[in-house]
Amino acid sequence: MRRFGWLFRQSSKPVQTDGFGQSLLDDLLWIGRVRRYRQMAMTWRKPTADEEVAIVADPLLGRFGDDTIGLAEINGLRCIVRDHDWFGWPDPPRFVFFALAGNRVVAAAGFHDWPSCWTPAPPDYSIVTPTTFQSPPS
User: Band of the pLDDT at 46, cuts 50, 70, 90?
Assistant: First the structure.
């Protein structure tokens, strides 16, 4: 019996949390929620400058993704999609999705492909000037 004592021994090092504090049951619930949200029709909008600053400054949301590309409100939840500058194997997926009820994260997941029922935020053409599309001099 001494041979298998290491199986029953308590670890002296505390387990590090990832910041969410969820259990295995929570993870399974999140998988179902994310699948459901990916099937809902959502129209995304660009975040305002203040919203972007608040998301980047958030200790949890700010560490996932590099840019916030869309916000949506649906069923009393605030949904956020951020993207990564570097993605694909071995890096994380291109996008990360969060659904928030107040300050509580109720679902989060990384994904590669944008769902077809989601309408992306319109592109920002503010950097385009009228001279951008002129023909070169002849």
Answer: very high
Q: Tell me the residue length of the chain.
A: 138
Round to whole Å and give the CA distance between 64 and 111.
12
Contacts of 37 (CB under 8 A, 6+ apart): 74, 79, 97, 99, 107
**Closest among 61, 41, 42, 43 to 51, alpha carbons compared:** 61
Question: Going along 1-132, which residue ranges are E strands?
Answer: 42-43, 67-74, 77-83, 95-101, 104-111, 118-119
* pLDDT tens sequence across 65-83: 889 999 999 989 999 999 9
> What was the pLDDT predicted at 86?
82
The secondary structure of 38-73 as a DSSP string is HTS-EE-BPPPHHHHHHHHHSTTGGGS-SEEEEEEE
